[in-house]
Amino acid sequence: MTRGVIFDIQKFSLNDGSGIRTTVFLKGCPLRCAWCSNPESQETGLQRIYWKKKCIGCGRCVRVCPKEKGCQLPGYIVCENQCDLCIHACPAGALQGTAKLYSVGELAEAIKQDVRAYYRSGGGVTFSGGESLFQWQFVREAARCFNSMLIHSAIETCGFAPWEQMWNAVEFIDLILFDIKHLDSAIHQKYTGAPNELILENLKKLAETGKEIIIRIPLIQGINDGEDHTDRLIWLARENNIKEIHLLPYHAWGKPKHEGLGYDNFHKFERPADEKLNFLIKKISRSGLQSVIGG
Amino acid sequence: MGAQLTLISNEVLELLDDSINVRPRIQKLRKEFFNKAPSVCVQRARLYTKSHQETEGKPMILRRALALEKILNEIDIYILDGELLVGSLSETPRGASVFPEFAVNWLREELKGNPVAFPDRGGDPYAVSEEVKKELLEDIIPYWYGKTHEDRVKSLMPEESWRAGMEVKGFDDSWLVISGDGHTIPDYIKVLKVGMAGIIREAEDHLKNLDLAEPDELAKEPFYRAVIITAKALISYAKRLSSLAAEKAGTETDPVRKKELLEISRVCAKVPEHPAENFKEAVQSLLFLNIGIQMENNGHSISFGRVDQYLYSYYAQALADGSLSNEDVLELLNCFWIKLNSFSKLRDFDNTKFFVGNPLFQNLTIGGQTLDGRDAVNDLSYLCLCSTKKLKMVQPSLVVRYFNGISNQFLGECAKVIRTGLGMPAIFSDEVIIPSMLNIGYSMDDAVDYGIVGCVEPAPQGKIGGRYGAAFPSPVKMLEIALNGGLDPRTGIRCTNGKKLVECESFDDVMEQFKGQMDYFLKQHVIFDNVIDISYRDMTPNPLLSSVIEGCLDRGKEIKEGGAKYDFTGGQIVGLTCAANALCALKTLIYDSGKLTKEQFAHALATNYEDNSTDPKGEEIRQMALNWAPKFGNNDDPADSLASEITRYWATEKMKQKNTRYGKGPIGGRFIPSTATVSANVPSGYVIGATPDGRKSGDPVSEGISAYRGSDKQGPTALINSLGKIPNTLMPGGQLLNVKLNPSTLEGDKGIQNLVALIRTLFDAKGMHVQFNVVDKKILEDARSHGENYQDLIVRVAGYSAFFVTLDKDVQEDIMMRTEHSFA
Fold first, then answer.
1. Is the peptide bond prior to B469 cis by the omega test (within 30 degrees of 0)?
2. pTM of the complete model
3. The domain over range A3-43+101-293 is classified in CATH as 3.20.20.70
């Protein structure tokens, strides 16, 4: 049986598809976007976030550590043994594990809790990450299960996976939130670590299946918020018969998680100004497409 | 009830729009309200005392009637510039009258500055002039020594019950030792229909038909006479205002205002004596009756019931004959609302912590369903909503009745008002309330026609004697005593003999001890509240109120003698979910996982989690309690099921208890539970030591059926799922749920749609009530340090809204610490 590696299940999510949703954050990602707000999602293995503010300095984590002198906090990232003893020893909630294994049945238990809210709001479940396609078999099984439970499902994806995997993952999904980071492959490569040809090809194939797609773009000032880039985005949407573009302005909320993971490569980007965002929204709307900030 | 419109008219919809402001008259009256500070007024106390000095020897009910007559005949009256509706609870706007017949000791001490003088209070200050102070201290208070309700209560109260309530504080009932109870919806509908003249005729008929040779009937004679005196007094009060208006009209130079004054004069000469025949007369009549009842007794929560239903025919008629436009109606509602805000109740210092923001809880109910199950919302419902939206003032407490058939349009308009941060309207679900009422004996028709009283108490209109407001039982305190083997660690008072925590071999043992304490304090609370009711019956009977409660005139009995059609005594549990969390921590950490021993946990509690010489240290144990044990509000079964068990046990046992009217006529005659905690969760926590949920000594406990502040971490849908596991139907006294939302969650049309969906989800889960605080935490922080800039900032306390700056510091803090739900 396939099991999913999940780092968070967030209830009452309002911005990942219609209505009140539960968002399932899957671990593992093929890209390394420089502005990533969920850095704990990138690796597939168990990691540990250290929340310094919550730490009461009791040292119980060190006491249980099988290493001779205990690990040194902070700065320690992934335990060699994938061991979670310290996490369980912490009474203050200062150590957070970033991975939990779920069977489809276990996930369904969590998802169905809010079924009243989904029906009342036109919501459902959204797979996010990380990159959902990284665990395409699990997503496929889970989506099929939710489909049989009459729960609407959405997936947020960067589209970077072999087509077969992508199709397998989304076949039972109702709505696809397709992330586009940049339309210039070289720039894409520079900021995410991968080119975009495969992504755009997958978008085209996906559009041909008739699945409902919304394009989402994380807007970073000076990188992909230009008028010209927006024109190309509109063109991409039209070409693929897509009706809606969501603009997700950059935010730096991932910073504490970067620090808690012991990463030292956090780079702060800038959020485009509100006037700019409104200008782009108007521009997209004028072209006959729907557009919102936040989604 | 007239033909109901199912579609809202465009004209009303336009008035709701944010771009429309209230009329200049209303802006002016509203501004004057904020400019005027609340003050202590002496006239009622003076007149009441004089009357009592003259009537010694007469039966109490007649003395009370004659005293009210004197007050209504002689208290100074006023009409403010621009007012369209008149009357007041005191000689000045925002004045608080004094009710010396209930208690004077606290008043004397606080006038002298013990513990705090009225103007120096941290929350709810009142100005007191030197003359008022002098008159109260020298002329009025001394007369009352040994003659008050408080004196009678103390003389009747068994020592053990007094200790359990006033010293141990397993429940707190101190507010009712020194003031009246209130808490009902008078039969406004009848007064609109027959006028006070109709009430008088009815009383006279009964009087005439009494067979005075029958001792039982002889006993009724003073009651009917008292009813006639008070009804006539209320009429004469209205006529005094009529004369004043005419007098002012005589010297008024502005022809428009002159006309208004003449109209006021005409209306006040007619109502409440005669039936109301148009919308303005109807609203003025309501107001007079409300004023009369609140001058008779300072019990709060004299609520209005379903005004959008019983005023609808007047409204429809005014629109049809063109006498009023929708905007005119809105203006009258605005005047009505401002008038209600200008009423004030003087509470003692300790109780300002229980009832912060000096609320009178004049609840006004809209929406719901008709007797034949149709959506009852009409244009007037929207206009009431509109009045609250535009005025942004705390009274009346506007509540909306939800049922499955309510339209998304109306709910959406409610959501838009909630989004403004007013904390109103609070929303109540027929789907749970009606069954909860049927379960305790209400007829289907009376249950379907319920209105809300006070904070969250569902009541039939004009048919219940009370009293919903009663003691605040404190299960967290009971648990603390249970864990100490029946001894209260704070006072050293022994309540019962039981097993201490260290002697409990299983969690079942713990529950047994806890239930033992619930039994003990339930009994003491019942004795305490029944003593209070006996004193109310003997010392402060209410002929005016009784005359407008169904059953009293027929039986010839005052409410407290068993006159009303229905009668229940309440009691508001404070800290229910906190107690569940505490029990859950003991179960999880000691008995299920063995992570701590009983001794370790007991020691940590006794030392307020501060002993660092133990292993684990005190703070480590506290963190385990906070983080390793499930908490109510996260859809986590172990905690939720304990909250459910406490509810089931307490409610079931409580509803077996009899009040003083049992068997004397009313349906009911029993006690019913609620979680209408007002702000009592803060002072209740003062007397409770550290608890196993990680709460430290003196910290607040939880309020209503809400999650403990900061402990619900999974969002509102998880909170709703937790709530759904509680048998809310067993809380006919009302369930109270606070949800705090970040304003960003509610932006745009999507935000409104999501809030509507969230409300429906909550009621699908069989929630009974919900109210929202939608205020950015940053604004609250700023308001705390720069109160002068936030005079009209409103927050939801618990069951009612209050102006934030008037609140005591601890309560401000508690509101700020409630979990704020916002989502990426």
1. no
2. 0.93
3. yes
